[in-house]
Design goal:
By secondary structure, the chain is of the alpha/beta class. It has 21 helices and 29 strands. The strands form 7 sheets. A 7-stranded parallel sheet has the order 9-10-8-11-12-7-13, with helices on both faces. It has a 6-stranded mixed sheet with strand order 5-2-1-4-3-6, with no helix packed on it. Strands 14-25-24-15-22-20 form a 6-stranded parallel sheet, sandwiched between helices. Helix 6 (173-181) packs parallel to helix 7 (202-215) and helix 17 (536-548) runs parallel beside helix 18. The radius of gyration is 29 Å and the shape is globular. The N and C termini lie far apart (61 Å). It binds a DNA duplex (12 and 12 nucleotides) through residues 33, 35-36, 38, 40-42, 45, 48-52, 69-74, 87-93, 675-676, 678.
Length: 693
DNA sequence: ATTCGGACGGCC
DNA sequence: GCCGTCCGAATT
């Protein structure tokens, strides 16, 4: 050791009679300490840390700015949460540098980030990554685009000109717009009519709601599942609000465009933000409305830890910021039904008779052998005669949509004769066909050989439905004079013209028709209904009603026909055209089964030994008074992440919804204790996962 | 007396 | 997770 370092550090003596003096002789410059949310991955370090603000940085250090700090000896990124004149710590380090003085993490969003982290048993650092896009220095320094914003009077005039649009026939619809315009914060579960007419134009409705909110001097946040819906919403907002009034935030934007849109919002240059799930955290000042389209779409489940769901993020946000909420969809999820049952949302939908008159006429066609058409080409395409008739009639009036299952859904099998789904003889799991001629069970990967149908004894199986390519080919033969167009996955059409054509599309990739389809044929019914998922029925209805929404209203002859077993309750629900009642029943079933949203479920996933340790530790935590011990489900096998060497399992803990926060806190405590103790093995925790098994 | 390494505690 | 410190064993 050198001579120099042996000399003790200089100690500055502070006169004790000076009340403004700070300990350790630090210069008092008023606001000299910053509480920083440091980007550390460890659960037990998930809290703010204080740093001294060197006087040279005093100007730039503001709440919400990005900084670099020394933490455990290393440089790390962080956000300043608060600037204060004191600290409770005696060994504070100085801030290393200010990355940017731009206050990108507003106090409101910081509060939301904390709340989201707490709700999903995650850390602030994980959630803030979802909320604030990476900095782009050039964009930050560039001159912002000049925008001409309409005044409140102009906005009121526009809202008046447009009228209530798709809310027109609605019970409570016009009142909703009026309340938003008065600066109130109504919350609605909006059920527009699934049809290609104004009554079904959700994007127009969203734009009108944003305009009414803007007229009250407040901002709006409008969220949709994907870029296709975003394009539609962009068009509607441009028409109703004007192109200067809003920005669009989504993950397809490059770093520069993304940061530019974000800055326009955080700087208050725009008060309306539209986008996909990451935009749910966008810093809209004085938020008056959050709107969410089609909350059942699984794109709303964030794939990164802590796996928050956009619907709950927005619900949390509307509550925290006293904003209105508009959750719109053609189908209705059990979760929205739950929010309605708890009177957090009120249903807004046209009167029953208006709804039924405007909606395309729903029909179902049996898919059993006897119902097939006699026409040999139709027979080859496996088309029931009712479907053949609907297609023929529809083609006389315009394009006909044919919804077929996505390729991924084909990888299941049924008995050739009685259509009983094939299950693994060893562990009863469903089977999949990962590649041609290879049949494995989905849980354990057992190769399936020597299968025999438990119902009829047949030894042969087949794919239950043909895919898009085969369907298109067969339809071409059945309708030789008609153009057959395809839209799926990568090769996707946006719009088809009015000429008669058969448009074969996978769910979610259906192009819109310029004036609506004459008819829709939903061919994937039986396959969707065979899925062993808790949400199979809900998801099937969501897809059918989303496809139905592209068809002309029933008053203009529109028809939607689903092919499947007529006795299926889900097909019957389709026929009944009652998304609200259907979701209420679904919620009732979830309640009876003790599943979310009626209960809170925390799934712990990882190598079996680690999962067992974590679950045991959670169960060993002391329960709050009156709280019951959780119900334990599992462990059951679950897919391991790509690079894991171990097999993974999942164990789920379930408690009544009211005790959910307590359970999540206990889980979080266990995770924090484990990282502090450096326990071996990591787990993944999912609160209310969308797939339950 | 000095150096090395592994375990452990704290991170502002 | 990573760094710094502390303590015991090995090395001179």
């Amino acid at each position: 050791m050198s001579q120099l370092s042996a000399i003790p550090p200089t100690i500055t003596v502070v006169p004790t009679d000076d009340p403004t003096a700070l300990p350790l002789g630090l210069p008092d410059a008023g606001l000299s300490y910053a509480a920083v949310a440091v980007d550390v991955p460890l659960a037990h370090l998930d809290r703010p840390f204080d740093y001294r603000v060197p006087s040279a940085m005093l100007e730039e250090v503001v709440p919400g700015c990005r900084v670099k700090v020394r933490f455990a000896g290393r440089l790390r990124d962080g956000f300043v949460l608060e600037v204060r004149d004191h600290t409770d710590h005696d060994r504070v380090q100085p801030l290393e540098r200010v990355v940017s003085p731009e206050p990108v993490l507003t106090p409101t969003v910081a509060g939301l980030v904390r709340a989201v982290a707490d709700h999903w048993a995650g850390s602030f650092a994980d959630v803030v990554r979802l909320a604030v896009p990476p900095r782009h220095a050039t964009t930050e320094k560039a001159e912002p685009r000049q925008r001409k914003l309409p005044t409140a009077d102009e906005l009121r005039a526009r809202v008046g000109e447009h009228g209530p649009g798709p809310f027109a026939p609605g019970v409570g619809g016009p009142a909703l717009l009026a309340a938003l315009g008065r600066g109130e914060s109504p919350r609605a579960a909006w059920q527009p009519v699934p049809c290609a007419a104004e009554a079904g134009d959700w994007a127009y409705g969203f734009a009108l709601a944003a305009a009414a909110t803007a007229a009250s001097g407040r901002g709006s946040l409008l969220i949709v599942p994907d870029v296709t819906d975003l394009a539609r919403l962009t068009a509607a907002c441009t028409e109703v609000l004007g192109a200067d009034t809003f920005v669009s935030l989504h993950s397809d934007l490059g770093p520069s465009a993304r940061y530019r849109a974000f800055l326009a919002a955080v700087r208050g240059q725009v008060r309306v933000v539209i986008g996909t799930r990451a935009a749910a955290f966008a810093p809209v000042t004085d938020l008056g409305l959050v709107a969410l389209w089609d909350d059942g779409d699984d794109l709303y489940a964030e794939p990164r830890a802590p796996y928050p769901h956009t619907r709950e993020v927005l619900a949390l946000r509307a509550s925290r910021e006293q904003a209105g909420a508009l959750f719109g969809s053609y189908a209705r999820t059990a979760e929205v039904a739950d929010l309605v049952a708890r009177d957090w949302l009120r249903t807004v939908t046209p009167p029953r008779e208006v709804f039924r008159r405007l909606a395309p006429r729903p029909r179902i066609a049996s898919d059993d052998e006897r119902a097939l058409d006699r026409d040999p080409a139709a027979r080859a395409a496996r088309l029931p005669r009712d479907v053949f008739a609907v297609m023929r009639a529809g083609l006389a009036a315009g394009p006909v949509l044919v919804q077929v299952p996505r390729a991924g859904y084909l990888s299941s099998l049924v008995c050739r004769t009685c259509r009983t789904p094939v299950h693994c003889p060893r562990c009863s799991s469903p089977v999949s066909v990962p590649e041609p001629r290879v049949v494995r069970c989905t849980w354990a990967g057992h190769p399936v050989t020597g299968w025999e149908c438990p119902e009829c004894g047949d030894r042969h199986w087949r794919a239950p439905v043909v895919g898009a390519a085969r369907t298109a080919e067969e339809l071409g033969k059945a309708f030789p004079q008609v153009a057959v167009r395809r839209s799926s996955g990568e090769r996707r059409l946006d719009l088809v013209e009015d000429e008669p054509a058969l448009v074969v599309a996978t769910p979610g990739a259906e192009p819109r028709a310029a004036h609506g389809y004459a008819a829709a044929v939903l061919l994937d019914a039986s396959l969707l209904l065979q899925r062993m998922d808790l949400r199979a029925a809900e998801e099937a209805l969501r897809r059918w009603w989303n496809a139905t929404a592209l068809v002309r209203p029933g008053t203009a002859g529109g028809t939607a026909i689903a092919v499947g077993p007529p006795e299926s309750p889900t097909l019957q629900a389709f026929l009944r055209q009652d998304p609200v009642g259907t979701a209420e029943r679904e919620l009732g079933e979830r309640q009876a089964a003790g599943f979310p949203p009626a209960a809170r479920m925390v799934a712990v996933e990882g190598p079996s030994a680690t999962v067992a340790e974590v679950v045991d530790a959670v169960l060993a935590e002391t329960l709050p008074p009156d709280a019951a011990a959780p119900t334990v489900l599992g462990p059951g096998p679950v897919a391991a992440p790509a690079h894991s060497e171990d097999d993974w399992v999942r164990t789920s803990l379930t408690v009544p919804a009211a005790q959910g926060a307590g359970l999540v806190t206990r889980v979080r405590t266990v995770l924090a204790t484990r990282t502090a103790y450096k326990a071996e093995g990591t787990v993944r925790v999912r609160v209310d996962p969308i797939s339950i098994s």
